[in-house]
Amino acid sequence: MAELLSNPVFGISVSIAAYAVGVWLNKRLKTPLANPLLISLILLVCFFTVTGIPLEYYNEGGDMISFLIFPATASIGMSIYDNFDLLKRNLLPVLGGCLVGALSSVGSVWLLAKLFCMDDPILASLLPKSVTTAIALPLSEQNGGIPQITMVAVVIAGTMGAVLGPTLAKLFHIADSKVATGLAIGCSSHAAGTSTAVQMGEAEGAMSGLAIGICGLFTVLLSLFFKYLL
Amino acid sequence: MKVLWQVGILFAVCFLAQGAVELLPFAFPASVLAMVFVFLLLLTGILKKRQIKDLADWFSQNMAFLFVPYSVGIIQYFDLIRQNLFGILFISAVTMLFTFAVTGWAVKGLMRLQQKLERGHEHG
């Protein structure tokens, strides 16, 4: 049995099965709260706790999937290229907005974490939390954070933006500007929020998508100084 | 065959980024540098969009799935998360609202500035 379960096909197939259930439930329930990643995580955690199958067996296949995050992140470069005309036309608001977005996120996380007297590994895990998972994880790891805690924070920010994006835009009086709404959603809640921005309109969606890459890049540059913040 | 070429091209760019990162004097994620490389190669026309499009689209449609195995590792950190649960939830939520508001207001201000600059340009 051990030999069978430690074959990579086991980890890969249970991952796909759990994710398929997540996508199905997401379509059924029609709410961003039913996040497919979150659902598959809960299913798999229950599965491994109940069966007692060691995680090392699962990781034989899981690591192969995780490896693909590298080329997948590289391909985000194509979506920046796709939106490059839009970037050129709105150069000042996009670059300025994303810089402010990255600074305010990192700054507010740092301030609150210090107020809460959080330990350094937790602080390092939370600092990159408003950018897309693919960019947040290596930044967290690089500075001694725990990627899984980063994922929790990234998913919270993303889900909040996806659910509350339109409401927040009205609340903060930015709903009258599509560019401001799109960039605010993209900078605060990355790809998950972008899925909602796309539903709000083409301009909001494109701006939000652009913010994933640009705000991500600014956060990477800021992360070079994270070690002085810890 | 077409997809195989696309895998080859994208992985080669990743390999270059990995090599470049090791030469840098500071820590920088190779995947993010590879993202910048892909953007620059497309912009300069060295790489054509059709040479990576199918693969890049597939990745962006299935991005969330790739994080499933990583997320399962959370089992090992349950205790640590429980000890810091309130802080993690509170900070994640409050900073999200703050980032949203500040970014939105900054963009509105900058757009007014841009309009003013453009108008000044026309009249001047």
The averaged pLDDT of chain A comes out at 91
Biggest sheet layout of chain A: none
- Percent range of helical residues of chain B: over 70%
**What is the H/E order of chain A?**
HHHHHHHHHHHHHH
* Number of discrete domains of chain A: 2
Low-pLDDT stretches of chain B: none
Please give the alpha-carbon distance between the first and last residues of chain B: 57 Å
Compute the CA-based radius of gyration of chain B.
22 Å
- The amount of beta strand of chain A, in percent, is under 5%
Number of strands of chain B: 0
The tally of domains of chain B stands at 2
Characterize the main sheet of chain B. none
State the total count of DSSP E strands of chain A: 0
**Structural class from helices and strands of chain B?**
mainly alpha
- Quaternary structure classification: heterodimer
Count the DSSP helices of chain B: 6
Query: Which protein chains make the most extensive interface, counting residues with beta carbons within 8 Å of the other chain's beta carbons?
Result: A-B, 95 and 74 residues
Helix content of chain A: over 70%
Structure description:
The complex is a heterodimer of chains A (230) and B (124). Chain A has helices spanning 2-5, 8-29, 36-51, 55-67, 69-74, 76-82, 84-89, 91-115, 120-126, 133-142, 147-171, 178-200, 202-223, 226-229. Chain A is mainly α and 230 residues long. Chain B has 124 residues and is mainly alpha-helical. Chain B has helices at 2-23, 30-43, 53-61, 68-72, 78-83, 85-123.
Outline:
The complex is a heterodimer of chains A (230) and B (124). Chain A is built from 14 helices and no strands.
